[in-house]
Specification:
alpha/beta; globular; Rossmann fold; about 160 residues
């Protein structure tokens, strides 16, 4: 860990890993980005709940292999987090509606962990409403923690990856 990393912690949603690894910031083209993300995971700066790891494993690809080297970032489910999940699902029952076109099984656990740890969520989700409660909507409605997208996260870190 070097001084370039902030003291603030972040709770990453599955989409922050999956979408960026598989669609936008391919590791072959952005190795420095993924090295930095991995170092932040190893240093406890980036964390995620167990269900994020499960969603990544479901992809069974090179992201799964890479993530296996950074499992210290995975936080086991505990009482406070589970209590928050129940609270979230009471307020936003459709977060657990697995009949949605793209169910997000980890979402309530991501928001719950972020609230328990009082840290921002990093996600690629946007929008949402009571009938389709995506992470940014839920975070805004609850007002406990902010939700930020991955590009904003990179910008706030001040990271610039140059070809050398």
């Amino acid at each position: 860990m070097n001084e370039l990393f902030p003291r603030e912690k972040y709770c990453f949603d599955s989409s922050a890993f999956i979408d960026n690894w598989r669609r936008y910031y391919w590791p072959a083209n952005f190795p420095g980005l993924w090295k930095s993300i991995g170092e932040m995971m190893d240093g406890g700066i980036i964390i995620c709940p167990e269900l994020v790891w499960q969603e990544i494993k479901d992809g069974d690809d090179d992201l799964t292999e890479w993530f296996e080297n950074h499992l210290t970032a995975v936080i086991p489910m505990e009482g406070d987090q589970l209590n928050k999940v129940q609270e979230l699902l009471s307020a936003f029952p459709k977060m657990a509606d697995y009949n949605r076109p793209r169910p997000h099984h980890a979402d309530p656990f991501v928001v719950a962990l972020a609230e328990v740890k009082e840290i921002p969520v990093i996600t690629m989700e946007s929008g949402g409403d009571q009938n389709n409660p995506k992470i940014p909507y839920v975070c805004t409605q609850r007002g406990a923690v902010p939700a930020k997208n991955f590009s904003r996260f990179i910008s706030e870190q001040g990271w610039v990856f140059n070809q050398q």
